[in-house]
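Q: I have two molecules that I believe assemble together. Could you output C-alpha coordinates for the complex as a whole instead of separate predictions?
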Amino acid sequence: MLTLDGVGKTYRTGAFGGRELTAVRDVSFTVASGEVVSLIGESGSGKTALGRMILRLVDVTQGSITYDGVDISRLRGRGLKEYRRRVQGVFQDPFSCFNPIFKADRVLSIIRDEFFPGLRAEQWRQRMDGALAGVRLDPAAVLDKYPHQLSGGQLQRMLIARAVLLDIGLLVADEIISMLDASTRIDVLNLLGELKAQGLSVLFITHDLSLGHYISDRTVILRRGEVVEQGATGEVFANPQNPYTRTLLASVPQLHERWAAQ
Amino acid sequence: MALQVKDLRVYYRTLRGDVQALDGATFTLADGEIMGLAGESGCGKSTLGKSLIRLDARMRLVGGSVELDGDILPIGDDEAMRPLRFTKVSLIPQYAMSALNPTRKIGKLIAELLRSRGFDYGRFRPELIRRLELVGLGREVLDNYPIELSGGMKQRVVMVLSTLLDPGLLIADELTSALDVSTQRAVAEALVEFRDRRFVGSIIVITHDISLVYQIADTIMVMYAGKLAEKAPAETIVTAPRHPYTQLLLSSLPEVGVRYSDRKLTGIPGRPPTLLKPPGGCRFRDRCPLAYDKCREEPPFTEVAADHLVACWKAM
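A: Yes, here they are, computed for all two components at once.
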Protein backbone atom coordinates (compact mmCIF):
# COMPACT_ATOMS: atom_id res chain seq x y z
CA MET A 1 0.00 0.00 0.00
CA LEU A 2 2.57 2.55 1.10
CA THR A 3 5.98 1.69 -0.25
CA LEU A 4 9.21 3.52 0.43
CA ASP A 5 12.00 2.65 -1.93
CA GLY A 6 15.50 3.90 -1.19
CA VAL A 7 14.21 7.16 0.27
CA GLY A 8 16.74 9.80 1.23
CA LYS A 9 16.52 13.38 2.42
CA THR A 10 19.28 15.94 2.31
CA TYR A 11 18.87 19.39 3.83
CA ARG A 12 20.96 22.38 2.87
CA THR A 13 22.36 24.18 5.87
CA GLY A 14 24.79 26.98 6.51
CA ALA A 15 24.53 30.65 5.66
CA PHE A 16 24.20 30.21 1.89
CA GLY A 17 23.08 26.61 1.81
CA GLY A 18 26.68 25.63 1.24
CA ARG A 19 26.68 22.60 3.48
CA GLU A 20 24.61 19.49 3.23
CA LEU A 21 23.06 17.46 5.99
CA THR A 22 21.75 14.02 5.17
CA ALA A 23 18.89 13.27 7.53
CA VAL A 24 17.61 10.09 5.89
CA ARG A 25 19.61 7.64 3.80
CA ASP A 26 18.29 4.78 1.64
CA VAL A 27 15.23 3.81 3.67
CA SER A 28 12.92 1.14 2.27
CA PHE A 29 9.89 -0.41 3.92
CA THR A 30 6.20 -0.95 3.27
CA VAL A 31 3.03 -0.41 5.25
CA ALA A 32 0.29 -2.86 4.23
CA SER A 33 -3.37 -2.01 4.71
CA GLY A 34 -4.72 -2.63 8.19
CA GLU A 35 -1.24 -2.77 9.63
CA VAL A 36 0.42 -0.73 12.36
CA VAL A 37 4.11 -0.17 11.68
CA SER A 38 6.17 1.57 14.30
CA LEU A 39 9.14 3.65 13.32
CA ILE A 40 11.48 3.79 16.30
CA GLY A 41 14.58 5.89 16.66
CA GLU A 42 16.39 8.30 18.93
CA SER A 43 16.51 12.05 18.37
CA GLY A 44 18.03 12.92 15.03
CA SER A 45 17.45 9.50 13.55
CA GLY A 46 15.27 10.92 10.78
CA LYS A 47 11.96 9.44 11.89
CA THR A 48 10.06 12.73 11.75
CA ALA A 49 11.68 13.63 8.43
CA LEU A 50 10.31 10.37 7.02
CA GLY A 51 6.84 11.13 8.36
CA ARG A 52 6.90 14.58 6.81
CA MET A 53 8.00 13.18 3.47
CA ILE A 54 5.17 10.66 3.49
CA LEU A 55 2.70 13.45 4.25
CA ARG A 56 4.20 15.48 1.39
CA LEU A 57 5.10 18.32 3.72
CA VAL A 58 8.68 18.17 2.45
CA ASP A 59 10.05 16.77 -0.79
CA VAL A 60 12.01 13.59 -1.21
CA THR A 61 15.65 14.02 -2.30
CA GLN A 62 16.40 10.47 -3.40
CA GLY A 63 14.27 7.39 -4.01
CA SER A 64 10.52 7.28 -4.21
CA ILE A 65 7.41 6.96 -2.07
CA THR A 66 4.45 5.28 -3.69
CA TYR A 67 0.95 5.03 -2.30
CA ASP A 68 -1.41 2.58 -4.04
CA GLY A 69 0.98 2.44 -6.95
CA VAL A 70 1.21 6.20 -7.49
CA ASP A 71 4.48 8.06 -6.93
CA ILE A 72 3.46 10.80 -4.52
CA SER A 73 6.22 13.24 -5.42
CA ARG A 74 4.58 13.73 -8.82
CA LEU A 75 1.19 14.68 -7.36
CA ARG A 76 0.00 18.21 -8.03
CA GLY A 77 -3.25 20.09 -7.55
CA ARG A 78 -6.28 17.83 -7.56
CA GLY A 79 -4.18 14.67 -7.32
CA LEU A 80 -2.45 15.97 -4.21
CA LYS A 81 -5.75 16.88 -2.64
CA GLU A 82 -7.05 13.37 -3.29
CA TYR A 83 -3.88 12.03 -1.66
CA ARG A 84 -4.50 14.20 1.40
CA ARG A 85 -8.00 12.76 1.57
CA ARG A 86 -6.40 9.33 1.94
CA VAL A 87 -3.34 10.11 4.06
CA GLN A 88 -3.34 12.34 7.10
CA GLY A 89 -1.05 13.09 10.03
CA VAL A 90 -1.38 13.78 13.73
CA PHE A 91 1.52 15.36 15.57
CA GLN A 92 3.15 15.54 18.95
CA ASP A 93 1.79 18.65 20.58
CA PRO A 94 -2.03 18.81 20.63
CA PHE A 95 -1.97 22.17 22.43
CA SER A 96 -0.21 24.02 19.64
CA CYS A 97 -2.31 22.48 16.85
CA PHE A 98 -5.30 24.57 17.90
CA ASN A 99 -5.74 28.29 17.53
CA PRO A 100 -6.63 29.49 21.05
CA ILE A 101 -8.85 32.27 19.70
CA PHE A 102 -11.22 29.94 17.87
CA LYS A 103 -13.34 27.12 19.18
CA ALA A 104 -11.68 23.73 19.01
CA ASP A 105 -14.19 22.23 16.58
CA ARG A 106 -12.93 24.68 13.95
CA VAL A 107 -10.37 22.05 12.94
CA LEU A 108 -13.34 19.92 11.91
CA SER A 109 -15.22 22.65 10.04
CA ILE A 110 -12.09 23.49 8.04
CA ILE A 111 -12.24 19.93 6.72
CA ARG A 112 -15.85 20.52 5.68
CA ASP A 113 -15.04 23.74 3.82
CA GLU A 114 -12.06 22.19 2.13
CA PHE A 115 -13.20 18.68 1.28
CA PHE A 116 -17.01 18.49 1.55
CA PRO A 117 -18.30 21.90 0.37
CA GLY A 118 -21.55 20.45 -1.00
CA LEU A 119 -22.54 18.47 2.06
CA ARG A 120 -25.80 19.47 3.76
CA ALA A 121 -25.69 20.48 7.43
CA GLU A 122 -27.65 17.42 8.42
CA GLN A 123 -25.33 14.97 6.68
CA TRP A 124 -22.25 16.79 7.95
CA ARG A 125 -23.54 16.58 11.49
CA GLN A 126 -24.01 12.83 11.10
CA ARG A 127 -20.55 12.39 9.70
CA MET A 128 -19.00 14.43 12.49
CA ASP A 129 -20.85 12.55 15.18
CA GLY A 130 -19.71 9.30 13.63
CA ALA A 131 -16.08 10.40 13.61
CA LEU A 132 -16.25 11.65 17.21
CA ALA A 133 -17.92 8.45 18.34
CA GLY A 134 -15.13 6.60 16.56
CA VAL A 135 -12.53 8.25 18.76
CA ARG A 136 -14.80 7.81 21.79
CA LEU A 137 -15.52 11.48 22.37
CA ASP A 138 -18.92 12.72 23.48
CA PRO A 139 -19.93 15.44 20.94
CA ALA A 140 -21.66 17.44 23.66
CA ALA A 141 -18.46 17.50 25.70
CA VAL A 142 -16.13 18.75 22.98
CA LEU A 143 -18.13 20.73 20.42
CA ASP A 144 -18.54 24.46 20.93
CA LYS A 145 -15.65 24.55 23.40
CA TYR A 146 -12.39 26.48 23.36
CA PRO A 147 -9.11 24.54 23.33
CA HIS A 148 -8.20 25.53 26.90
CA GLN A 149 -11.43 23.95 28.15
CA LEU A 150 -10.41 20.54 26.86
CA SER A 151 -7.75 18.17 28.12
CA GLY A 152 -4.72 17.10 26.12
CA GLY A 153 -6.20 13.66 25.55
CA GLN A 154 -9.45 15.15 24.27
CA LEU A 155 -7.61 17.53 21.92
CA GLN A 156 -5.44 14.75 20.58
CA ARG A 157 -8.48 12.55 19.97
CA MET A 158 -10.19 15.46 18.23
CA LEU A 159 -7.23 15.71 15.85
CA ILE A 160 -7.53 12.00 15.15
CA ALA A 161 -11.26 12.52 14.53
CA ARG A 162 -10.34 15.27 12.08
CA ALA A 163 -8.20 12.79 10.17
CA VAL A 164 -10.85 10.07 10.33
CA LEU A 165 -13.51 12.44 8.90
CA LEU A 166 -11.78 12.03 5.56
CA ASP A 167 -11.81 8.53 4.19
CA ILE A 168 -8.23 7.97 5.16
CA GLY A 169 -6.35 4.77 4.54
CA LEU A 170 -3.13 5.74 6.29
CA LEU A 171 -2.54 7.75 9.44
CA VAL A 172 0.93 9.07 10.19
CA ALA A 173 1.06 9.37 13.98
CA ASP A 174 4.20 11.27 14.91
CA GLU A 175 4.87 10.97 18.68
CA ILE A 176 1.18 11.51 19.26
CA ILE A 177 1.17 10.44 22.88
CA SER A 178 4.48 11.65 24.25
CA MET A 179 2.91 14.87 25.55
CA LEU A 180 0.00 13.12 27.23
CA ASP A 181 -0.23 11.89 30.80
CA ALA A 182 0.29 8.25 31.61
CA SER A 183 -3.34 7.73 32.55
CA THR A 184 -4.70 9.04 29.23
CA ARG A 185 -1.97 8.01 26.80
CA ILE A 186 -3.00 4.38 26.88
CA ASP A 187 -6.55 5.33 25.81
CA VAL A 188 -5.24 7.11 22.72
CA LEU A 189 -3.01 4.13 22.00
CA ASN A 190 -5.93 1.71 22.29
CA LEU A 191 -7.84 3.96 19.92
CA LEU A 192 -5.19 3.32 17.25
CA GLY A 193 -5.75 -0.38 17.84
CA GLU A 194 -9.48 0.03 17.23
CA LEU A 195 -8.97 2.08 14.08
CA LYS A 196 -6.62 -0.59 12.84
CA ALA A 197 -9.33 -3.19 13.37
CA GLN A 198 -11.47 -1.10 11.00
CA GLY A 199 -8.84 -1.45 8.29
CA LEU A 200 -6.78 1.70 8.78
CA SER A 201 -3.00 1.52 8.40
CA VAL A 202 -0.98 3.47 10.92
CA LEU A 203 2.63 4.58 10.79
CA PHE A 204 3.42 5.04 14.47
CA ILE A 205 6.52 7.18 14.92
CA THR A 206 7.97 7.07 18.42
CA HIS A 207 11.13 7.06 20.50
CA ASP A 208 9.49 4.92 23.16
CA LEU A 209 10.14 1.25 22.55
CA SER A 210 7.53 -0.06 24.94
CA LEU A 211 4.77 1.95 23.25
CA GLY A 212 5.89 0.74 19.84
CA HIS A 213 5.95 -2.82 21.08
CA TYR A 214 2.49 -2.54 22.58
CA ILE A 215 0.69 -1.42 19.47
CA SER A 216 2.54 -2.38 16.30
CA ASP A 217 2.60 -5.39 14.01
CA ARG A 218 5.92 -4.54 12.47
CA THR A 219 8.83 -2.46 13.68
CA VAL A 220 11.43 -0.45 11.81
CA ILE A 221 14.41 0.72 13.85
CA LEU A 222 16.26 3.76 12.58
CA ARG A 223 19.66 5.06 13.49
CA ARG A 224 21.25 8.18 12.00
CA GLY A 225 18.86 8.13 9.08
CA GLU A 226 19.37 4.49 8.21
CA VAL A 227 17.31 1.40 8.90
CA VAL A 228 19.28 -0.89 11.20
CA GLU A 229 16.63 -3.52 11.69
CA GLN A 230 13.08 -4.25 10.61
CA GLY A 231 10.67 -7.12 10.95
CA ALA A 232 7.68 -8.44 12.86
CA THR A 233 7.50 -6.64 16.22
CA GLY A 234 7.67 -9.79 18.32
CA GLU A 235 10.69 -10.97 16.36
CA VAL A 236 12.61 -7.70 16.60
CA PHE A 237 12.02 -7.37 20.33
CA ALA A 238 12.55 -11.00 21.27
CA ASN A 239 15.48 -11.68 19.04
CA PRO A 240 17.24 -8.48 17.96
CA GLN A 241 19.93 -9.10 15.37
CA ASN A 242 21.63 -5.73 15.35
CA PRO A 243 23.89 -4.76 18.27
CA TYR A 244 22.40 -1.25 18.30
CA THR A 245 18.88 -2.66 18.78
CA ARG A 246 20.19 -4.80 21.61
CA THR A 247 21.73 -1.82 23.47
CA LEU A 248 18.58 0.14 22.90
CA LEU A 249 16.42 -2.61 24.36
CA ALA A 250 18.72 -3.08 27.35
CA SER A 251 18.42 0.61 28.20
CA VAL A 252 14.64 0.76 28.32
CA PRO A 253 13.56 1.19 31.94
CA GLN A 254 11.11 -1.52 32.93
CA LEU A 255 8.85 -1.94 35.89
CA HIS A 256 9.49 -5.03 37.99
CA GLU A 257 12.95 -5.40 36.55
CA ARG A 258 16.06 -3.39 37.32
CA TRP A 259 18.73 -2.64 34.79
CA ALA A 260 21.30 -5.39 34.60
CA ALA A 261 24.85 -4.27 35.31
CA GLN A 262 26.72 -3.35 32.15
CA MET B 1 16.37 12.43 58.88
CA ALA B 2 18.08 14.70 56.40
CA LEU B 3 14.96 16.47 55.23
CA GLN B 4 11.77 17.01 57.15
CA VAL B 5 8.84 18.70 55.48
CA LYS B 6 5.82 19.50 57.63
CA ASP B 7 2.42 20.47 56.27
CA LEU B 8 3.89 22.48 53.41
CA ARG B 9 1.35 24.58 51.53
CA VAL B 10 2.26 26.60 48.45
CA TYR B 11 -0.40 28.35 46.40
CA TYR B 12 -0.16 30.17 43.10
CA ARG B 13 -1.63 33.63 42.99
CA THR B 14 -3.88 34.21 40.02
CA LEU B 15 -6.50 36.83 39.21
CA ARG B 16 -9.24 34.30 39.84
CA GLY B 17 -7.96 33.28 43.25
CA ASP B 18 -5.37 30.96 44.72
CA VAL B 19 -4.49 27.74 42.94
CA GLN B 20 -3.80 25.24 45.67
CA ALA B 21 -0.98 23.44 43.88
CA LEU B 22 0.62 22.02 47.00
CA ASP B 23 -1.76 21.47 49.83
CA GLY B 24 -0.30 20.06 53.00
CA ALA B 25 2.73 17.89 52.22
CA THR B 26 4.31 16.11 55.18
CA PHE B 27 7.19 13.70 54.60
CA THR B 28 10.75 12.93 55.57
CA LEU B 29 13.78 11.97 53.55
CA ALA B 30 16.57 9.90 55.08
CA ASP B 31 20.22 10.79 54.61
CA GLY B 32 21.39 9.39 51.29
CA GLU B 33 17.88 8.53 50.17
CA ILE B 34 16.92 8.91 46.51
CA MET B 35 13.22 9.61 46.36
CA GLY B 36 11.29 9.52 43.11
CA LEU B 37 8.42 12.02 43.03
CA ALA B 38 5.88 10.88 40.47
CA GLY B 39 2.49 12.04 39.27
CA GLU B 40 0.62 13.46 36.30
CA SER B 41 1.11 16.98 35.00
CA GLY B 42 -0.42 19.53 37.32
CA CYS B 43 -0.30 17.31 40.40
CA GLY B 44 2.08 19.67 42.20
CA LYS B 45 5.29 17.68 41.98
CA SER B 46 7.31 20.46 40.39
CA THR B 47 5.78 22.97 42.81
CA LEU B 48 7.03 20.86 45.70
CA GLY B 49 10.50 20.61 44.17
CA LYS B 50 10.71 24.30 43.35
CA SER B 51 9.43 25.44 46.72
CA LEU B 52 12.37 23.73 48.42
CA ILE B 53 14.84 25.91 46.57
CA ARG B 54 13.16 29.02 45.22
CA LEU B 55 9.61 30.30 45.25
CA ASP B 56 8.98 32.31 42.13
CA ALA B 57 6.98 35.50 42.10
CA ARG B 58 3.62 33.83 41.62
CA MET B 59 4.12 31.30 44.39
CA ARG B 60 3.01 32.07 47.90
CA LEU B 61 4.07 30.12 50.97
CA VAL B 62 0.88 29.61 52.94
CA GLY B 63 2.11 27.39 55.70
CA GLY B 64 4.41 24.64 56.81
CA SER B 65 8.06 24.24 57.62
CA VAL B 66 11.10 22.58 56.10
CA GLU B 67 14.10 21.35 58.04
CA LEU B 68 17.34 20.24 56.35
CA ASP B 69 20.03 18.47 58.39
CA GLY B 70 18.65 19.94 61.60
CA ASP B 71 18.42 23.54 60.40
CA ILE B 72 15.24 25.30 59.40
CA LEU B 73 15.23 26.09 55.68
CA PRO B 74 13.81 29.63 55.32
CA ILE B 75 11.99 28.88 52.09
CA GLY B 76 9.61 31.82 52.38
CA ASP B 77 12.48 34.31 52.63
CA ASP B 78 14.18 34.79 49.28
CA GLU B 79 17.14 36.73 50.71
CA ALA B 80 17.80 34.25 53.51
CA MET B 81 17.69 31.36 51.04
CA ARG B 82 20.26 32.92 48.73
CA PRO B 83 23.41 31.76 50.59
CA LEU B 84 21.93 28.27 50.96
CA ARG B 85 21.19 27.72 47.28
CA PHE B 86 23.92 25.78 45.46
CA THR B 87 25.75 25.18 48.77
CA LYS B 88 23.07 23.35 50.79
CA VAL B 89 20.23 22.85 48.32
CA SER B 90 20.89 22.43 44.63
CA LEU B 91 18.84 21.91 41.50
CA ILE B 92 19.24 20.16 38.16
CA PRO B 93 16.67 21.76 35.88
CA GLN B 94 14.75 19.85 33.24
CA TYR B 95 16.37 21.47 30.25
CA ALA B 96 20.11 21.56 30.86
CA MET B 97 20.35 23.06 27.39
CA SER B 98 18.80 26.26 28.61
CA ALA B 99 20.57 26.19 31.98
CA LEU B 100 23.98 26.92 30.49
CA ASN B 101 24.92 30.38 29.26
CA PRO B 102 25.53 29.93 25.51
CA THR B 103 28.06 32.79 25.35
CA ARG B 104 30.46 31.36 27.94
CA LYS B 105 32.79 28.39 27.78
CA ILE B 106 31.85 25.77 30.36
CA GLY B 107 35.01 26.36 32.45
CA LYS B 108 34.50 30.11 32.55
CA LEU B 109 30.84 29.67 33.43
CA ILE B 110 31.71 27.45 36.39
CA ALA B 111 34.49 29.81 37.51
CA GLU B 112 32.12 32.78 37.50
CA LEU B 113 29.50 30.86 39.40
CA LEU B 114 31.94 29.76 42.09
CA ARG B 115 33.41 33.24 42.41
CA SER B 116 29.96 34.74 42.86
CA ARG B 117 29.57 32.48 45.87
CA GLY B 118 32.98 33.44 47.27
CA PHE B 119 34.81 30.25 46.32
CA ASP B 120 38.12 29.93 44.57
CA TYR B 121 37.87 28.23 41.16
CA GLY B 122 41.53 27.19 41.16
CA ARG B 123 41.06 25.17 44.30
CA PHE B 124 37.98 23.39 42.96
CA ARG B 125 39.40 22.68 39.51
CA PRO B 126 41.12 19.35 40.27
CA GLU B 127 37.97 18.04 41.96
CA LEU B 128 35.86 19.34 39.08
CA ILE B 129 37.98 17.50 36.53
CA ARG B 130 37.88 14.34 38.62
CA ARG B 131 34.10 14.44 38.74
CA LEU B 132 33.78 15.20 35.04
CA GLU B 133 35.91 12.15 34.30
CA LEU B 134 33.68 10.11 36.57
CA VAL B 135 30.69 10.84 34.32
CA GLY B 136 32.74 10.12 31.22
CA LEU B 137 33.67 13.65 30.17
CA GLY B 138 37.24 14.75 29.53
CA ARG B 139 38.73 17.99 30.86
CA GLU B 140 38.50 19.47 27.37
CA VAL B 141 34.78 20.13 27.84
CA LEU B 142 35.81 23.05 30.07
CA ASP B 143 37.05 24.77 26.92
CA ASN B 144 33.88 24.00 24.96
CA TYR B 145 30.87 26.16 24.45
CA PRO B 146 27.53 24.53 25.43
CA ILE B 147 26.54 24.33 21.76
CA GLU B 148 29.47 21.99 21.11
CA LEU B 149 28.12 19.36 23.51
CA SER B 150 25.27 16.90 22.99
CA GLY B 151 22.14 16.93 25.16
CA GLY B 152 23.38 14.08 27.34
CA MET B 153 26.79 15.72 27.81
CA LYS B 154 25.20 19.02 28.77
CA GLN B 155 22.96 17.25 31.26
CA ARG B 156 26.04 15.62 32.82
CA VAL B 157 27.93 18.93 32.95
CA VAL B 158 25.00 20.49 34.78
CA MET B 159 24.92 17.51 37.13
CA VAL B 160 28.59 17.90 38.04
CA LEU B 161 28.19 21.64 38.37
CA SER B 162 25.11 21.50 40.64
CA THR B 163 26.72 19.03 43.01
CA LEU B 164 30.21 20.54 43.11
CA LEU B 165 29.79 21.98 46.60
CA ASP B 166 28.39 18.71 48.02
CA PRO B 167 24.86 19.94 48.77
CA GLY B 168 22.75 18.16 51.38
CA LEU B 169 19.74 18.08 49.09
CA LEU B 170 19.58 17.83 45.32
CA ILE B 171 16.40 18.33 43.35
CA ALA B 172 16.46 16.80 39.88
CA ASP B 173 13.45 17.99 37.91
CA GLU B 174 12.64 15.68 34.96
CA LEU B 175 16.35 14.99 34.71
CA THR B 176 16.13 12.61 31.78
CA SER B 177 12.87 13.31 30.00
CA ALA B 178 14.54 15.28 27.20
CA LEU B 179 17.11 12.53 26.57
CA ASP B 180 17.18 9.38 24.45
CA VAL B 181 16.88 6.00 26.14
CA SER B 182 20.56 5.11 26.03
CA THR B 183 21.77 8.50 27.33
CA GLN B 184 18.94 8.44 29.83
CA ARG B 185 20.40 5.36 31.40
CA ALA B 186 23.93 6.78 31.61
CA VAL B 187 22.70 9.98 33.28
CA ALA B 188 20.45 8.14 35.73
CA GLU B 189 23.23 5.78 36.73
CA ALA B 190 25.65 8.67 37.21
CA LEU B 191 23.19 10.18 39.66
CA VAL B 192 23.25 7.03 41.80
CA GLU B 193 27.04 7.01 41.62
CA PHE B 194 27.14 10.57 42.96
CA ARG B 195 24.98 9.59 45.92
CA ASP B 196 27.15 6.52 46.62
CA ARG B 197 30.26 8.69 46.64
CA ARG B 198 28.56 11.14 49.00
CA PHE B 199 28.76 14.07 46.58
CA VAL B 200 25.18 14.78 47.53
CA GLY B 201 23.09 13.97 50.57
CA SER B 202 19.55 13.13 49.59
CA ILE B 203 18.04 13.44 46.13
CA ILE B 204 14.48 14.14 45.02
CA VAL B 205 13.96 12.98 41.43
CA ILE B 206 10.84 14.56 39.97
CA THR B 207 9.50 12.57 37.07
CA HIS B 208 6.41 11.34 35.31
CA ASP B 209 8.18 8.15 34.26
CA ILE B 210 7.74 5.63 37.05
CA SER B 211 9.60 2.87 35.18
CA LEU B 212 12.71 5.03 35.00
CA VAL B 213 12.64 6.22 38.58
CA TYR B 214 12.10 2.67 39.77
CA GLN B 215 15.57 1.85 38.40
CA ILE B 216 17.36 4.35 40.62
CA ALA B 217 15.16 5.37 43.53
CA ASP B 218 15.06 3.93 47.04
CA THR B 219 11.57 5.24 47.67
CA ILE B 220 8.82 6.59 45.45
CA MET B 221 6.26 9.18 46.42
CA VAL B 222 3.13 9.58 44.31
CA MET B 223 1.19 12.85 44.25
CA TYR B 224 -2.30 13.56 43.04
CA ALA B 225 -3.96 16.98 42.66
CA GLY B 226 -1.73 18.81 45.10
CA LYS B 227 -1.74 16.16 47.80
CA LEU B 228 0.48 13.25 48.67
CA ALA B 229 -1.13 9.94 47.77
CA GLU B 230 1.44 7.31 48.68
CA LYS B 231 5.06 6.94 49.73
CA ALA B 232 6.86 3.62 50.05
CA PRO B 233 10.06 1.83 49.07
CA ALA B 234 10.32 1.64 45.25
CA GLU B 235 9.83 -2.11 45.25
CA THR B 236 6.62 -1.85 47.31
CA ILE B 237 5.14 0.90 45.12
CA VAL B 238 5.66 -1.19 42.03
CA THR B 239 4.68 -4.60 43.35
CA ALA B 240 2.12 -3.86 46.07
CA PRO B 241 0.69 -0.33 45.83
CA ARG B 242 -2.13 0.44 48.25
CA HIS B 243 -3.59 3.68 46.91
CA PRO B 244 -6.13 3.11 44.09
CA TYR B 245 -4.58 5.94 42.07
CA THR B 246 -1.13 4.34 42.18
CA GLN B 247 -2.65 1.00 41.23
CA LEU B 248 -4.50 2.43 38.24
CA LEU B 249 -1.52 4.50 37.16
CA LEU B 250 0.77 1.48 37.18
CA SER B 251 -1.71 -0.72 35.37
CA SER B 252 -1.92 1.83 32.55
CA LEU B 253 1.80 1.75 31.78
CA PRO B 254 2.77 -0.22 28.70
CA GLU B 255 6.02 -2.13 29.07
CA VAL B 256 8.09 -4.07 26.63
CA GLY B 257 6.41 -7.46 26.84
CA VAL B 258 2.80 -6.28 26.81
CA ARG B 259 1.01 -6.27 23.45
CA TYR B 260 -2.30 -4.72 22.50
CA SER B 261 -3.38 -7.96 20.86
CA ASP B 262 -2.65 -10.03 23.99
CA ARG B 263 -3.64 -7.82 26.85
CA LYS B 264 -5.41 -4.51 26.48
CA LEU B 265 -4.42 -1.93 29.06
CA THR B 266 -6.85 0.74 30.19
CA GLY B 267 -6.38 4.32 31.29
CA ILE B 268 -7.99 6.16 34.19
CA PRO B 269 -11.30 7.73 33.11
CA GLY B 270 -11.96 11.37 33.93
CA ARG B 271 -9.46 14.11 34.64
CA PRO B 272 -7.96 15.64 37.80
CA PRO B 273 -10.04 18.31 39.59
CA THR B 274 -9.23 21.98 39.15
CA LEU B 275 -7.05 23.25 41.99
CA LEU B 276 -8.60 26.70 41.96
CA LYS B 277 -11.42 25.57 44.21
CA PRO B 278 -10.66 21.91 44.81
CA PRO B 279 -13.42 19.65 46.13
CA GLY B 280 -13.29 18.67 49.79
CA GLY B 281 -12.53 15.15 50.90
CA CYS B 282 -10.39 12.81 48.88
CA ARG B 283 -9.47 14.54 45.61
CA PHE B 284 -9.34 11.29 43.66
CA ARG B 285 -12.92 10.47 44.67
CA ASP B 286 -14.57 11.23 41.31
CA ARG B 287 -12.26 8.95 39.35
CA CYS B 288 -11.86 6.24 41.97
CA PRO B 289 -13.62 2.89 41.43
CA LEU B 290 -13.55 2.17 45.17
CA ALA B 291 -14.99 5.49 46.37
CA TYR B 292 -17.63 5.33 49.11
CA ASP B 293 -19.31 7.73 51.54
CA LYS B 294 -16.34 8.04 53.84
CA CYS B 295 -14.32 9.57 50.97
CA ARG B 296 -16.15 12.86 51.50
CA GLU B 297 -13.85 13.31 54.47
CA GLU B 298 -10.23 13.94 53.77
CA PRO B 299 -8.08 10.82 54.30
CA PRO B 300 -4.98 11.37 56.44
CA PHE B 301 -1.52 10.50 55.05
CA THR B 302 -0.66 7.75 57.51
CA GLU B 303 1.67 4.82 57.85
CA VAL B 304 -0.13 1.57 57.01
CA ALA B 305 2.98 -0.60 57.16
CA ALA B 306 6.63 0.07 57.93
CA ASP B 307 7.80 2.97 55.71
CA HIS B 308 4.59 2.75 53.72
CA LEU B 309 2.39 5.84 53.90
CA VAL B 310 -0.96 6.09 52.14
CA ALA B 311 -3.75 8.66 52.04
CA CYS B 312 -6.79 6.48 51.42
CA TRP B 313 -9.60 5.27 53.66
CA LYS B 314 -9.71 1.91 51.88
CA ALA B 315 -6.03 1.22 52.51
CA MET B 316 -6.21 1.52 56.28
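A: One point stands out. The radius of gyration of chain B is 20 Å.
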